[in-house]
Amino acid sequence: MVTTAETYHVPVLLKESVDGLNIKPDGIYVDVTFGGGGHSREILSWLGKKGHLYSFDQDADAEKNIMNDDRFTFVRSNFRYLRNWMRYYEVEQIDGLLADLGVSSHHFDDETRGFSFRFDAPLDMRMNKRAGKTAAEVINEYSEEALADVFYLYGEMKNARRIAASICSYRQEHRIETTSNLMAAIEKMIRSEKEKKDLARIFQALRIEVNHEMDALRDMLAGAVQLLSSGGRLCVITYHSLEDRIAKNIMKAGNAEGKVEQDFFGRISSPLRPVTNKVTIPSEEELQTNPRSRSAKLRIAEKI
User: Fold this and answer.
1) pTM summary value
2) CA-based max dimension of the chain
């Protein structure tokens, strides 16, 4: 598969998210989900000579989209290490951070990575192919209880225990190495009338577990809250309820759990304040041209 910036990933809510950053020409900004570089290019177009953008991505494929610009630094890393890398680059404060969460269209369309049930491929699902357990290792090595937890917590599957039991029964006779193996193992657990939705949730759950996405998101957002300067903006695009809940809690209460602290007068004490009362969703025009944007929600907050 030939990968270009255009085919790697079409940026979602591009104008809305970059506008939300309220960019200062000489500011320091971070795009923690570089991907095809669409959001990063737009941010750079608003920066002056003294501005700078740091963009993160752990996928080697994304490096093919790097721009040659003195105002740009690419960081080959999981965004959970945001604070460490900013310390490395001697950056004490940033003026804005953008996160387009979820999986790029490149990953879903790559027939070799196992992210999609549309293709028969090895069960890998690692964003960083250089490290960590593959989805196949999770499926074959986790206990029935641990698998049930994954499908319930990250896929919100009500029949998570039955799915896990079916997988464990199947793997006693056959090692599950490919997407087709996995689908054969869970075939009887999938409702025909909701086949695509159920499969999408199961594959989502595995992907989240393989890449430790929820832990990484919590770490990154906690780092962003600390790094943002007063008036700095945090823009987060989410695609499912699990990550959206964390983003919402951070922006409302300043922590991923949503534990609200109040001052003496009963006012919510939080380092951030939401810029808009409602989430921003894609326009009808964008929905028609970019199907991936269908479930996207943009939340914007400002550092107090």
Assistant:
1) 0.90
2) 64
